[in-house]
Structures are given as C-alpha cells and as structure tokens.
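User: quick one, fold this
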Amino acid sequence: MVKKSLYFFACLSLVFISLVKADEQISGPSSEEENLTDEQLNNFKDAVDKGIVEKHITCENHEEFCKREEGNIKDKKKSTCRIILANYLCKGPQNLDTMKVVVDKLMKLADDE
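Assistant:
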C-alpha cells in the first residue's frame, strides 16, 4: 500500500513533466505555463485530488504521509510528494492557479536535476 502511494506521486510527476517536455520539443521553448493547457492541468489536478481522497491526506498529515512514502529525504525541496501536497493542500485554494504553482516548482526541480 505504501509503495503504491509512492509510485502514484512519482508517476504523476513524471507523466506530467514528460508531457510538458514533449510539447516543448514540438513547439519550441517557451514558458511552462504557455505549454500547459487547462485540460492538462485539470487532468493532473483530478489525479492529485483522487489520491488525496483515497489516502485521506490533509495539510496536517501530509508531512507524515510523504515521510512514509519517500523516506526521510533531507532536502525537502527535492521531495515531489511534499512539493505537490504542501503547495496544493496548505498554501492556497485547491484550484488551477495553485496547480500551476505546483507544476512550476516541479519543472524547476526537473531542470535542476
């Protein structure tokens, strides 16, 4: 069960980043937000919402959840689980604008690696 959750968030991040990178290769470099359609953001948001509901994740328990799923990552800025959940659940309304912030942070993380 724990491994499934970890794979869920890792796969979400990888799929989303792959979609954006593929689109960038086809259309040329531009800002991340220009590459994303509302449909892509909605699909990502729906998948995150589904995982949050299924796993009963809240702002209050997301740290424990991510620690269980990813282990004790020393640099929390590199934790995709924490990036997604902390920003989406704790720092703003759960809407497309907040999801754009999450995606921007995930893209920066991918570019750094």
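User: anything notable?
Assistant: Residues 29-33 have pLDDT under 50 and may be disordered.
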